[in-house]
Request: fold
Amino acid sequence: MSDSRQLKTWVSNDTKQRFVSVARCQGVSESRLLRRLVELMLQTTNPAAGALDPRVNLARTTRLMMRLRPDDQGLLRARAAERGMAPATYVSVLTRAHLRSLSPLPREELLALKRTTAELGIMGRNLNQIARAANRGRAAALGQDDVRAMLRVAEGLRDHFKALLTANAKSWEVGHAEASH
Reply:
């Protein structure tokens, strides 16, 4: 780094202590953290215009930092945990959904729906085999009550899926009213 130059500034004691604390939490030196911040700012700023340059293709590792009120942090952690996600992942998915007008279905919920849909497909094929056998005169020992019970199960699953998808879409749109001030 023979062509490197030093960059310095003066800050309050409180700011310095907080900066040191953040550097420790991230496991880097104060110097390294300051370098990251300067490089990030330079990547996202057009020096000539002094404003953000939308043409800059930022690295995938670019981070967005924001402050949340303590009660909102608690709600965020709870919502993320309900979906089996890290809070940052939840915020990322939520932001993407808002920006693109999506109703996201978290991976775990999607996999559960896919597994259940596959089971419903198997059940439907079995019912078709029973119906074919009955139409050929080789009726299985399946009575009308059994068929009605299977139909109720299928309708219940359909209604459950419908409610799950509706609740999922709504959960991304509304928050906790009691938390807003």
